[in-house]
Amino acid sequence: MNAGSFCNCITVTAVTDICCYILESNSRKIYIGCTHNLARRIRQHNQEITGVSKYTRKYGPWKIIYIIRNFPDFRTALSFEWHWQRYPKTRRKIKNKNKAKERAIELITGRFVSYNLRLNYIT
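Request: output the structure for the sequence above.
Response:
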């Protein structure tokens, strides 16, 4: 699969596009993750194919809210995900999509500025 589309009318141009993403459920829960195949991972979260995480299984269906792209490698994306999930001083997990957006912008313009990352708002 070199190109395709999936939920929320997102077009994936490359299967190996490394990205971090935030999902929101109908019950307003959020989930922050990282993948190299977003189309497949969203299908997993929505239990269309095997490999769903324990957390997302309970609260689905899920829709994409934000995608961060342009990571040079998966290790950098995992580091971004870890920092994105937590407030800087307390390390409590972020539970609100607006706070998650603020935190993403803070990271993109701060700690990860040299990577020229892009934040895409989907919904």
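The first helix runs from residue 38 to 45.
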